[in-house]
Amino acid sequence: MKAVIYFFLALLLTSCASRVAPSGGAPDKSPPKIVSVNPASGSTLFSSDRLEITFDEFIALKDGGSGILISPPLKTPPEAILKGKALQLRFKENFLENTTYTLTLGASVTDITESNPLEETQLVFSTGPQLDTLKFTGRVENAYTNLAPKSAVVALYEAFHDSVPQNQMPRYFARTTASGSFTINNVKAGKYRMLAFEDANSDMKLSLPDETVAFAADTIQIDSGTLSIGTLRLFKNKPNRQRLVRSKFDAPGRITLKYVFAPEKLEFESAGSMDIAKLLNTSKSQSDSITLWYNAKGIDSLQFIAKAFSGDSLHRDTVFFATKKSGSIAGKGRSKKTAAADTSIQITLNTFQNKLIAGDSLKLRFSAPLADTVVGKIVCIYNNDTLQLSPIVDLGEKMQRVYVLPKPNQNFTLKIERGIFTDIFGRGCDSLRQNISYFTEDDLGNLDFIFRNDSVNGFVGVLQLRDKSGTVLKSQKVSTTETLQFKSLSPGEYSVCLIEDNDGNTQWTSGDFATRKQPERMYYFAEKFTVRAGWDLELEWEPLQTSNRKKNLK
Length: 554
Known about the structure:
Blueprint: H1 2-16, E1 34-38, E2 50-55, E3 59-61, E4 69-71, E5 79-83, E6 86-90, E7 100-105, E8 109-111, E9 121-126, E10 134-142, E11 153-157, H2 164-167, E12 172-175, E13 181-187, E14 190-197, E15 213-215, E16 220-222, E17 226-234, E18 244-250, E19 254-259, E20 265-270, E21 280-281, E22 289-293, E23 301-310, E24 313-322, E25 328-331, E26 334-337, E27 347-349, E28 355-356, E29 362-366, E30 378-382, E31 385-389, E32 400-403, E33 412-416, E34 432-438, E35 445-451, E36 461-466, E37 472-478, E38 482-489, E39 492-500, E40 522-524, E41 529-531, E42 536-542, E43 547-553
Parallel strand pairs: 10-17, 28-34, 35-42
Antiparallel strand pairs: 1-2, 2-6, 3-8, 4-7, 5-6, 7-9, 10-13, 11-12, 11-14, 14-15, 14-16, 18-19, 19-22, 20-23, 21-22, 23-24, 25-26, 27-29, 29-32, 30-31, 30-33, 33-34, 35-38, 36-37, 36-39, 39-40, 39-41, 42-43
């Protein structure tokens, strides 16, 4: 009797057992490998409704197998079924006649032990008597950074009207590698429209303006062998319609409006008890991020109408903020907790390591606009000589004061009395006492930058010198070979870039997919470089020929 019980217990334990990865030993880092494909890859006259792929180990499907792609695409994706070490794909629709199909397997297929993804693999079959063998290759990069995207789809279409990429899946496609390169295999001879895009929503369709896009100016004719298109440049397409993306209020009265693109002109109207004449706009021109200031002291809420003009179009938004002291703010129907507000106005000087460059004026930058009545006299102490200075007041500049120093290049002590500066919110500044000196020749470095262009006639560009953080320090228009001199640079790391300024606005301009306008090109000097104290650095660059060299001079 006991033997019978043991038998049924053993049978129960065996039937309930699950397949698990073996414990112990080194982690499995090898991806699964394909052992066989039925029907075999390269088959012609393919007519089966299923394809079975056998691996060397048990596998799993990540994300439901959404990474399994077939080109030309099917209206209904194949059903993916796991059977032990095999993956079976069951097709739900008929294939096109005399058509070569490419099946791409990639990261969706993993092993069950360590989830190692399958290396991207392509299987090919044809419903006709032969395979199409033509190839289309190239590279994709970001138009501004010149770096490869994380992933982009390169697509070929047989139809050419404008709505095709947004409404239809491509006839052929491939994904870019980590380096941005791509190869579309097994293409049929013919004429195609081509573009690339970052498929953010994984629907294999172009979604503007959310996804970056790159395109070939002309149709692509693929006749024989391998056609290489070179480099395609991805850009963010400018939206057709203006939109206020978000609005934010920071106590005691800083308002930020973020638009989809920079308005050409902004106007404001009161929608409540606000005195709209007291609303200050301190934003830079041609910016999509707008900074406004309003003294909301004693006011529970702010409401006004923002009117953004772009060409002949006008976009209106009614903006509302709750400004109660409860710590909540509202904008666009949302409420969130504010950060603690500063109790005094902050001052930033145009010094570096408490030093000025010879010939510089002293500039004071404030964290909020100053009150209209503020002049702001400061004290400069030269040894035993104490001088009170008044600024050069620019009535349009609410956040800066400039002082011409009476004794150029002489060290001094700056003294600012507490409360001498007050902002529009009534906050005063803290007292400040700081010793300020000047950089000597041995403290600074010089850069002679030779821009060379002896081959491209009519080129117009803007060369920018940037600091380590990427801030543009100096800009200069360039066309033909010339030497640009950058004197008295603080020691540190710098970089140089060149903007192809076709429209003459002295800044980089993106492309426009609707009008087939390509983005302006960006060129980057091959390496960052260091300016050393007391050294003269000479660099030479021929970006249009992608060559450069450098040398140091003592």
